[in-house]
């Protein structure tokens, strides 16, 4: 039995087999070889295996997402056969007498850089593909297996760290819990775990080489503990705790259909945050009154090229239609910082959180923005959709956004495509937006406070930096005063204000938020009923 502690990002209990996810183990070393032919043969074998893997992925994708989306695996198969690519690998092995892993990794990097620097957008996007196939070849050469979720039984994922794009690609029905060595409580991966109701522990001092896939494990998000190879006694206790937890959840479920009203009659909207169409089920299951934050950037993650207008339109339309008249606030893409996407070619930045991110990308690259806006304006015809813009710092930015929206309207008019310009609001997540919230309130329809970033930028604490978790204090007076200030300014102009950052679900603050006059709290679906309980136990007019 091995017991370790970590930080819980979602409090829940799980028990099951471990699935060790080793992905960034690809630290390829350059070694000298004496037999070049043997290395070339290894490349051939790894390529053969890759072709079979890609064919299996293609077949699976055709069934699940259709031929068009599956085509990427065909492209990968073609790239694997590319003469220039293979010749570069062979040449390096022969002339430098180096190991196959090194030759493949270096060739992959070279080709990927070459594609990235091309003018043609299609070729640029191939940069990520060539990296992908090179990583696959290296994995095959090193004898590492693909994480195969299809045949995997529900498991506890144990990894060094997980990126948001890796997390969104996982088949959620197969994940009992996450346990990671690194990661911070405010990262998007942690947010995803909360959204999916999945017990998750981060910062667990594990040596992945000592844990094998299949080992039984208990994850206790309440105690912040993970126990590998638990004794029978621990298993029995865990089963009892899981049953009790289930009973508590059932009790919370009796709040479904009840109003979000305080003991003294104040009402508030409780909405849910989602990352994609697949999360709408959690929203309905937990009886949220609407969607207060649809992080649309998740549509851009975990793929090799931009989602088309049609793909986006279908996703937005599906969500608003399923929500059947309930409010759905879709945030325009917030790529950048920890949400990196290769095909955006954002390049290296010293301070990505203070960098080229979110609305800044949209204003600098209006073509990307316009595609999304067209999809949103078209989808607005099908339900109660609102648009929300992230990372706003000034009224000038909002005016520039409106000018682009006007261009999109003119284009849609010209093509006689039906659309509607819905309610448009902004996120209050920079200190600058709080300080000019009086002027911003005049321009927009609503505010939604992003406390995750507002805390990061106000306290000068990188939300991704696990060393700073102890300093990250969203209860800091400065944050609460800022929320109050934004609320007062919104209300002076007759606009509404919500909170969609993680703090909105902090039931220690529910009463205080209601006293500030916050009109809406948008929280992870799993927190909706807990917040409803806190609201129904609160008294505002004390
Ligand atoms: C926030 O910053 O609080 C927020 C809701 O946005 P995100 O967490 O996606 O940056
Ligand atoms: Mg944010």
Q: What characteristics describe this protein?
A:
single chain; 542 residues; alpha/beta; Glucose Oxidase, domain 1; Enzyme I, Chain A, domain 2; TIM Barrel; 3 domains; eight-stranded mixed beta sheet; eight-stranded parallel β-barrel; 19 helices; 14% strand; globular; binds phosphoenolpyruvate; binds magnesium ion
Structure, explained:
With 542 residues, the chain is an alpha/beta fold. The chain folds into 3 domains: 2-22 and 148-231, Phosphohistidine domain (Glucose Oxidase, domain 1); 36-142, Orthogonal Bundle (Enzyme I, Chain A, domain 2); 257-536, Phosphoenolpyruvate-binding domains (TIM Barrel). 45% of the residues lie in helices and 14% in strands. It contains 19 helices and 16 strands. It has helices at residues 36-65, 67-80, 83-96, 100-116, 121-141, 164-169, 188-195, 232-253, 280-285, 309-322, 359-364, 366-379, 395-414, 431-435, 437-443, 451-459, 477-492, 510-516, 528-537; strands at 2-5, 7-10, 13-21, 155-159, 175-180, 200-202, 216-220, 225-228, 269-274, 291-295, 328-331, 385-389, 423-428, 446-449, 496-499, 520-523. The strands form 2 sheets. The chain has an 8-stranded mixed sheet with strand order 1-8-7-3-4-5-6-2. An 8-stranded parallel β-barrel has the order 9-10-11-12-13-14-15-16. Strand 10, helix 10 and strand 11 form a beta-alpha-beta unit. Helix 12 (366-379) packs across helix 13. The mean pLDDT is 90. It binds phosphoenolpyruvate and magnesium ion. The site of phosphoenolpyruvate has 10 residues, from strand 10 and helix 16.
């Amino acid at each position: 039995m091995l017991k370790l502690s970590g930080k819980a990002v979602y409090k829940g209990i799980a028990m099951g087999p471990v699935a060790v996810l080793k992905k960034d183990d690809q630290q390829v070393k350059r070694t000298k070889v004496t037999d070049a032919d043997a290395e070339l043969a290894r490349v051939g074998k790894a390529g053969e295996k890759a072709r079979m893997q890609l064919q299996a992925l293609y077949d699976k994708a055709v069934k699940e997402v259709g031929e068009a989306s599956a085509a990427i695996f065909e492209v990968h198969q073609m790239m694997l056969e590319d003469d220039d690519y293979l010749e570069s690998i062979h040449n390096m092995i022969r002339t430098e007498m180096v190991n196959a892993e090194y030759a493949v990794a270096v060739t992959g990097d070279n080709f990927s850089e070459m594609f990235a620097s091309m003018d043609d957008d299609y070729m640029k996007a191939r940069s990520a593909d060539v990296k992908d196939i090179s990583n696959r070849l290296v994995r095959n050469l090193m004898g590492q297996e693909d994480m195969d979720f299809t045949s995997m039984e529900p498991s506890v994922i144990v990894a060094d760290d997980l990126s948001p794009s890796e997390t969104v690609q996982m088949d959620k029905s197969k994940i009992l819990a996450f346990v990671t060595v690194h990661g911070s409580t405010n990262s998007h991966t942690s947010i995803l775990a909360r959204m999916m109701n999945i017990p998750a522990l981060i910062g667990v001092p594990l040596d992945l080489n000592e844990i094998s896939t299949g080992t039984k494990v208990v994850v206790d998000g309440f105690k912040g503990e993970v126990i590998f190879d638990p004794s029978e006694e621990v298993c029995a206790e865990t089963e009892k705790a899981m049953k009790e937890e289930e009973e508590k959840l059932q009790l919370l479920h009796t709040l479904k259909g009840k109003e979000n009203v305080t003991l003294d009659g104040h009402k508030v909207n409780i909405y849910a945050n989602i990352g994609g169409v697949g999360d709408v089920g959690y929203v309905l299951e937990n009886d949220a009154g609407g969607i207060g934050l649809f992080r649309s950037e998740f549509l851009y993650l975990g793929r090799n090229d931009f989602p088309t207008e049609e793909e986006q339109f279908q996703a937005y339309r599906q969500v608003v239609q399923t929500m059947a008249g309930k409010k759905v606030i879709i945030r325009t893409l917030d790529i950048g910082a920890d949400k990196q996407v290769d095909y955006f070619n954002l390049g290296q930045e010293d301070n990505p959180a203070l960098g080229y991110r979110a609305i800044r990308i949209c204003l600098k690259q209006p073509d990307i923005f316009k595609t999304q806006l067209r999809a949103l304006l078209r989808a607005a015809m099908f339900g109660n959709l609102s648009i929300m813009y992230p990372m706003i710092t000034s009224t000038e930015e909002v005016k520039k956004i409106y000018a682009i929206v006007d261009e999109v309207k003119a284009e849609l008019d010209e093509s006689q495509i039906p659309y509607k310009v819905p309610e448009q609001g902004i996120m209050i997540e920079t200190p600058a937006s709080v300080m000019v919230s009086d002027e911003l309130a005049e321009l927009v329809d609503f505010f939604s406070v992003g406390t995750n970033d507002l805390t990061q930028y106000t306290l000068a604490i990188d939300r991704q930096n696990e060393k700073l978790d102890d300093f990250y204090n969203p209860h800091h007076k400065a944050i609460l005063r800022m929320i109050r200030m934004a609320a007062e300014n919104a209300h002076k102009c007759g606009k509404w204000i919500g909170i969609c950052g993680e703090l909105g679900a902090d039931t220690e603050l529910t009463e205080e938020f209601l006293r500030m006059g916050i009109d809406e709290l948008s929280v992870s679906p799993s927190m909706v009923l807990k917040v409803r309980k806190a609201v129904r136990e609160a008294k505002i007019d004390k």
